[in-house]
Amino acid sequence: MSEPVILLDAGSGGRASQRLIRGLFFKFFSNPILEEMDDAARLDLSGPLAMSTDSYTVDPLEFPGGDIGSLAVHGTVNDVAMLGADPAYLSCAFIIEEGFSVALLEKLARSMAEAAAGAQVLIVTGDTKVVPRGAADKLFINTTGIGRILVSRPPQGKNARPGDAILLSGTLGDHGLTVLSSRSKLNLSPRLRSDSAPLNHMVGALLRGLKEVHVLRDPTRGGLATTLNEIAGQSGVVCVVREDSLPFTPEVLAGCALIGLDPLYLANEGKLICILPPEEAPEALEIMRRFPEGRQAAQIGVVLAPGEQYKAAPGQVILKTALGGERLLGMLEGEQLPRIC
Amino acid sequence: MSEPVILLDAGSGGRASQRLIRGLFFKFFSNPILEEMDDAARLDLSGPLAMSTDSYTVDPLEFPGGDIGSLAVHGTVNDVAMLGADPAYLSCAFIIEEGFSVALLEKLARSMAEAAAGAQVLIVTGDTKVVPRGAADKLFINTTGIGRILVSRPPQGKNARPGDAILLSGTLGDHGLTVLSSRSKLNLSPRLRSDSAPLNHMVGALLRGLKEVHVLRDPTRGGLATTLNEIAGQSGVVCVVREDSLPFTPEVLAGCALIGLDPLYLANEGKLICILPPEEAPEALEIMRRFPEGRQAAQIGVVLAPGEQYKAAPGQVILKTALGGERLLGMLEGEQLPRIC
């Protein structure tokens, strides 16, 4: 007997769609808001709000440490949290290629549900499209998240100030290298794992425990280097990073050396950059380290005014290398690895 | 010289992504919230809220009366409005196939921006993924919308009551038949046009002008028949529709007769079903007819209690045919036409 697969009519809006929604998605995502089954979900939520969207096209769909389902929850939860918000609700839209395995869809939906429970968010509304074979590669998931902003002056990319400390919540490059290794079947190391994790609980603790947080951002596509470039540009400042302060797992360092990738440009899915006044840094690091995904949190650099020390222009990022040199760390040029998230 | 196309690096999160976002999307979607360029958009919006999501995979991307861009705005705006809400903000996520025409992307972004302006909603946050050639068919767009619910007892699918009137805001089948005709190059009629339109202004007028609206829903995928089945099921009632009251354009009637499609199952993208107490029906029709897309609004049926007249069970929909007969109108079985929206 052949394995059950998703047929085109599951995206028709008719009876087969209802079967898929009630028989599969509701089994995992069930909550009173979703079950109203209206065109829109009714939410008792008041602002100011943060809203963020991401489509997930990661290849392969499953990798050590996660899958497209958990990633689609963590990624959007984290983007909402970075604006100083408490993510509460997610929408979830599937684009499924005809012939996709029902068993795998069920496994991925279960993973999404578990990730949502871990992050304490509800999936409240959704959409399912099925496209003919060849019109999409297996499965894409879009999630859009909203949540209430917790502080009156939320952290934003434009708020970095000269003198601020730059903190990082943990090791770099784990997600990017894991996906690359899975996709290419390089099997770089059996210990490589994506860092995919929800950061909203850590963000909540930071905002409650600290007087002032200027910037929060998760260094996903483009990695630490690109994200710091964005922040430096938005704030009109210079970021200086000390290479010997950057945390890595030995597996990522070895893997990157082997295949010639710069881990500063690899995607992370469970790490955040936190920029804040230097006097707040010790307390912030202590808070981060209370969380499993923050155990290796470290101060990795400082924010300077343009021209203050290195003749650097606003928006530039400088790496102080372990050997005592300095080099400009640009934004990611070209594409290191498509379909990383 | 070859035409400029989207390359993989435009989805990298690096410099090429920034160029695409600033150079193309910002040109059309520009507003102060979007331009903050943070991971999430900051919205001053207080609840209760309606939230809805849809991914658009329509093929072809352009068709008479609209394109994937305008459709992605209208479809989500309408779903938010159907919960009695005033859509305010949209997120917008693109999945682009490598090699997609820059000129066409620009044209579609312009169309989205015009549709958003027409509906008076802002596109406040977005995402762009570029997947390798063959991993997606040209372009998919997800939009997620939120807005404030305008009434204390919002219209919902479960609220239809025996005795209620069933109103329809205009002709049926225009979107579905137009997309089918464009895709298959049937050229059924030069006058066929999608009805894609924003319904939020009409919904606002209905909610302000009427004492009570029980159900609002737009009969998109699966058409009028499937949507009425959903409502009848949610409310535990029977819907009776009079065939000779249903509005159609002559082009849709002729086209459906020619190719053997039932227009009651064809998708609409600018029509709504409104179910409300019969004494409110005349005023509701008058309000609908003030809008260009509501000129052919009509009462098309009534809601009955199960067993009241036709031995019908809760959730059933009965069509009184023009010849005086009756037949059960089931939910869409199978898939009439994939990638209709």
Q: What can you tell me about this protein's structure?
A:
Two copies of one chain form a homodimer. Helix content of chain A is 29%, strand content 23%. The first copy, chain A, is of the alpha+beta class and 341 residues long. The first copy, chain A, folds into two domains: 8-149, PurM-like, N-terminal domain (60s Ribosomal Protein L30, Chain: A); 157-328, PurM-like C-terminal domain (Phosphoribosyl-aminoimidazole Synthetase, Chain A, domain 2, Alpha-Beta Complex). The radius of gyration of chain A is 21 Å and the shape is globular. At the A-B interface, helix 1, strand 1, strand 2, helix 2 and strand 5 of A face helix 1, strand 1, strand 2, helix 2 and strand 5 of B.
Q: Give the CATH architecture of the largest domain in chain A.
A: Alpha-Beta Complex
Q: So what's the CATH class of the largest domain in chain A?
A: Alpha Beta
Query: Which chains make the largest contact?
Result: A-B, 86 and 86 residues
Order of helices and strands of chain A: HEEEEHEHEEEHHEHEHEHEEE
Largest sheet of chain A: 7 strands, mixed
Low-confidence stretches of chain A: none
Instruction: Write the CATH fold name of the largest domain in chain A.
Output: Phosphoribosyl-aminoimidazole Synthetase, Chain A, domain 2
Number of strands of chain A: 14
